[in-house]
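All the exercises in this workshop are built on plain-text protein records. An example says more than a description, so a record of this kind follows:
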Amino acid sequence: MKALISLLLIAGCGAQPAPEFFGASRADVTRNGRQYAVYYTEKRVEVIRLGFAHRGEHDDIRAQIITLIPEVTGCKLNENSLKGDSGEMRGSIRCPRG
């Protein structure tokens, strides 16, 4: 019974944003067969990769995340602010006024 409860709890853990992104806009994106959840506000962005990545794919995934942030948010990414790995990255963005 304990194993079943643990399995159900783990199964319920989808892409959950960091607390600073509660209430943020969310976009679900697929690029090159990979799925991402993108959470963003006017100043910050978080990208969560959904699914497994093999060794050697992480640099390409990181580059893909950097490319998709401005496409999804319509804002410019401050690349120096980007922290995290190919599974989850957060950074600052600058959005056009208006």
